[in-house]
């Protein structure tokens, strides 16, 4: 199942935090206290304002208006000015403003009255802006913004005229340079980045350098868009040449922009350069580059930076840890990721529900459901609400383990919490039911999905068709795929591979080969997965010669076999007892530089364990570790079970301790073998602890083990436990066995 991309949500969250310093000046309160523009020696002077001369008649009218306004007391302005409406012209507005310019609230009331009747000329608007800004009133920015949001004029023309009028009216109507910051910020906010840069250059001619906060805002908005990142880098390089002094927020923005372009090394260079420029990096600076390395999976470099920031007395924050936890979970190092969570909590940093969901998802993908549930419960104890992604992760883990009863319970719990399942949730459940052959339930969910207004996607239909193929219902599968095509969804290579896999699982290898031929007719070429699936089917049916023929055909077509391809062959050799061929294949892989994984070694070790040849098993295990291949849950279960059956209990217990430390769990057969081995060695206390642990995890022990512990508890006089185990034995060992036989 493809999970949600937690990295996208953290990256966006980080981005908002990184740029909080540069974007906060959009709030009016900050505007009045932020770093202001600076002035240099100008190449030109601001012009003197020369209003049009009024005649006697105009002067008298303006005087009457001014007198009426001043004497109005509580009377509404529109009523006072009603008699003058028909006589007022644009020039009159300016002349009235000259009379009332020292009363900012009155200017705003008069301006609003004018706007309701006529669209004020640019000169009037700019005069009002200067008056309001110079009086430190909060409306200056808003007046500029409203004009540009509502302007239907040609942008280039209106920009030029607005700038001309703003400069022309500046000297005599306000002379507060922050007005230019406001105008610049509005241009950036409405997306007129080219005009903002032109304005920066224009106002520079008058000796005004805009504030670093305004410049940061431009870089922040540019770097929001991948197409604007290069321009943001240009701004970062060019603006200091004309007097802009970058601050920490500036460097943080540009490092984030570089990381978005996957230029993490360049971002690191900027981080190292900051101090030489007299600007000390903060926790956000380091977290930005750490996140960049984490997205590339370069955990070692990220951890080096974490150590460096600590040496400088900087405490990692939530987002520093988030990035590391995400990359560890993606690398299946979920136990290490949880250690980071514990460190985070010990430092007083509260993890959010996304971090818990990431870890739960990681444990579910490793099929380690006990730890997933442990974190799920811890999350709720911390008053963090699981969301639909959290529940979907649990559902995925349960479906992957084939526990559909519990998966459906979790689904209903999710609904009961008022959370809405999406296409991913439904498809996960549908796929789970199809894999265990419960197609009735799968199609019921498909119908429920449609009733919810959700559209099944290619993955949904592929899961259903795969389930039908495994049941041999090829005609129904074909009908379903026709329905899918009728909805505009195209069969892709993944769909074909899934169908071929379904046919192989049901024993219809001939049909699977035919489908591969149909695939090519449809213009889709079989890939490595297609061939590997068919080779697996031939290996499992003992037809190793045919499997080899497919491998040759695959190589002739220029397709590169993967480690999975070789694992299929390895499993085929091992199933047929051809262990020497399996070892030769492993040696050949190492010679050719094909890196085996844990599954490669597990196949061989399993067969040697079955033959109780623990000497060769140990040799293979050591070879695996020497190659830097990490053992997985299956490795430990195979070795523990093998040593237990060979009565090597010291080795079995050693591997069990190591397994637990790495966050893996024993499966039922391993528990049974380990408990029996301990009992044979008279280590009843350890055996009992494992038996209780097994029961706590909901796993069912062998009837023989139940009988042993029934006798032990009876002999110790613990009748309550004896009766409890007796009931459990009847329910789990006898009733369930009878039920399974009748199925």
Structural notes for this entry:
By secondary structure, this protein is mainly alpha-helical. Among the domains are: 36-208, Serine Threonine Protein Phosphatase 5, Tetratricopeptide repeat (Alpha Horseshoe), CATH 1.25.40; 422-526, Alpha Horseshoe (Serine Threonine Protein Phosphatase 5, Tetratricopeptide repeat), CATH 1.25.40; 700-743. It contains 42 helices and two strands. A two-stranded antiparallel ribbon has the order 1-2. Helix 33 (563-575) runs parallel beside helix 35 (598-610). The radius of gyration is 37 Å and the shape is elongated. The two termini are 30 Å apart. 40% of the residues are buried.
Q: Descriptors for this entry?
A:
743 residues, mainly alpha, Serine Threonine Protein Phosphatase 5, Tetratricopeptide repeat, two-stranded antiparallel sheet, 42 helices, Pentacotripeptide-repeat region of PRORP domain-containing protein, TPR-like_helical_dom_sf, PPR_rpt, repeat
CATH class assignment of the domain at 36-208: Mainly Alpha
Query: Span from first to last CA?
Result: 30 Å
Helix tally equals: 42
CA radius of gyration is 37 Å
CATH architecture of the domain at 36-208: Alpha Horseshoe
Shape: elongated
The fraction of residues in strands falls at under 5%
The CATH topology annotation of the domain at 36-208 reads as Serine Threonine Protein Phosphatase 5, Tetratricopeptide repeat
Characterize the biggest β-sheet: 2 strands, antiparallel
**Overall average pLDDT:** 84
Catalogue the unreliable spans.
Answer: 1-35, 737-743
Q: How are the strands of the largest sheet arranged?
A: 1-2
Q: In terms of structural class, how would the helical and strand content be classed? A: mainly alpha
Helical content band: over 70%
> How many distinct beta strands?
2
Organism: Aquilegia coerulea (Rocky mountain columbine)
PPR repeats: 247-281, 282-316, 317-351, 352-386, 387-421, 422-456, 457-491, 492-526, 527-561, 562-596, 597-631, 632-666, 667-701
InterPro entries: PPR_rpt, TPR-like_helical_dom_sf
Protein name: Pentacotripeptide-repeat region of PRORP domain-containing protein
């Amino acid at each position: 199942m493809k999970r949600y991309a937690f990295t996208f949500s953290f990256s966006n969250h980080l981005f908002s935090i990184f740029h909080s310093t540069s974007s906060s000046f959009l709030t009016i309160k900050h505007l009045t206290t932020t770093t202001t523009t600076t002035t240099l020696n100008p190449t030109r002077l601001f012009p003197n304002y020369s209003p049009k001369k009024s005649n006697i008649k105009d002067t008298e009218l303006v005087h009457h208006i001014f007198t009426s306004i001043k004497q109005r007391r509580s009377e509404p302005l529109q009523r006072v000015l009603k008699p003058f409406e028909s006589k007022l012209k644009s020039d009159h507005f300016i002349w009235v403003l000259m009379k009332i310019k020292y009363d900012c609230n009155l200017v705003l009331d008069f301006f609003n009255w004018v706007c309701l009747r006529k669209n004020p000329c640019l000169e009037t608007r700019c005069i009002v802006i200067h008056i309001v800004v110079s009086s430190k009133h909060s409306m200056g920015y808003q007046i500029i913004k409203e004009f540009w949001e509502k302007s239907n004029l040609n942008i280039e023309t209106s920009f030029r005229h607005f700038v001309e009028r703003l400069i022309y009216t500046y000297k005599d109507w306000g002379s507060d340079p922050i007005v230019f910051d406001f105008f610049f910020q509005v241009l950036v906010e409405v997306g007129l980045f080219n005009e903002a840069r032109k304005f920066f250059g224009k106002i520079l001619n008058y000796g005004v350098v805009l504030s670093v906060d305004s410049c940061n805002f431009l870089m922040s908005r540019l770097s929001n868009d991948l197409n604007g990142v290069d321009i943001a880098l240009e701004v970062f390089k060019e603006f200091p040449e004309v007097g802009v002094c970058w601050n920490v927020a500036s460097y943080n923005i540009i490092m984030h922009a570089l990381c978005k372009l996957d230029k993490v090394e360049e971002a690191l260079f900027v981080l190292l350069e900051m101090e030489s420029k007299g600007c000390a990096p903060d926790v956000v600076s380091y977290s930005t580059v750490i996140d960049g390395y984490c997205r590339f999976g370069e955990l070692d470099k990220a951890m080096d930076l974490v150590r460096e920031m600590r040496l400088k007395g900087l405490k990692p924050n939530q987002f520093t840890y988030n990035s590391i936890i995400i990359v560890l979970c993606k690398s299946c190092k979920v136990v290490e990721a949880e250690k980071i969570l514990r460190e985070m909590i010990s430092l007083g940093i509260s993890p959010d529900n996304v971090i818990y969901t990431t870890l739960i998802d990681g444990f579910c993908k490793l099929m380690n459901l006990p730890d997933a549930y442990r974190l799920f419960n811890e999350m709720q104890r911390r008053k963090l609400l699981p969301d639909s992604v959290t529940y979907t992760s649990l559902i995925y883990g349960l479906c992957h383990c084939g526990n559909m009863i519990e998966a459906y319970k979790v689904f209903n719990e999710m609904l009961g919490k008022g959370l809405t399942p999406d296409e991913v949730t439904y498809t996960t459940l549908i796929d789970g039911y199809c894999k265990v052959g419960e197609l009735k339930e799968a199609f019921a969910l498909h119908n429920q999905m449609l009733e919810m207004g959700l559209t099944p996607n290619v993955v949904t239909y592929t899961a259903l068709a795969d389930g039908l193929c495994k049941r041999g219902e090829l005609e129904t599968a074909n009908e379903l795929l026709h329905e899918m095509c009728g909805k505009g969804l195209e069969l892709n290579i993944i769909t074909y591979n899934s169908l071929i896999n379904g046919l192989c699982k049901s024993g219809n290898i001939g049909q699977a080969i035919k489908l591969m031929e149909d695939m090519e007719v449809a213009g889709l070429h079989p890939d490595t997965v297609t061939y590997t699936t068919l080779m697996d089917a031939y290996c499992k049916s003992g037809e190793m010669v045919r499997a080899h023929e497919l491998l040759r055909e695959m190589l002739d077509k220029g397709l590169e076999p993967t480690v999975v391809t070789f694992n299929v062959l390895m499993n085929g050799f091992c199933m047929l007892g051809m262990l020497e061929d399996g070892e030769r294949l492993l040696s050949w892989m190492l010679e050719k530089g094909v890196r085996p994984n844990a599954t490669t070694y597990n196949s061989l070790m399993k067969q040697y364990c079955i033959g109780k040849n623990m000497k060769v098993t140990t040799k293979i295990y050591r070879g695996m570790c020497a190659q830097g291949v990490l053992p997985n849950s299956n490795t430990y279960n195979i070795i523990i079970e093998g040593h237990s059956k060979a009565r090597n209990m010291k080795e079995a217990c050693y591997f069990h301790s190591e397994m637990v430390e790495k966050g893996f769990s024993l499966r039922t057969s391993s528990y049974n073998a380990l408990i029996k081995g301990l009992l044979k060695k008279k280590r009843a206390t350890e055996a009992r602890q494992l038996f209780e642990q097994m029961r706590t995890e909901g796993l069912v022990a062998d009837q023989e083990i139940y009988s042993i512990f029934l006798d032990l508890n009876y002999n110790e006089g613990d009748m309550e436990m004896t009766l409890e185990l007796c009931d459990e034995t009847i329910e789990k060992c006898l009733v369930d066995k009878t039920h399974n036989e009748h199925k």
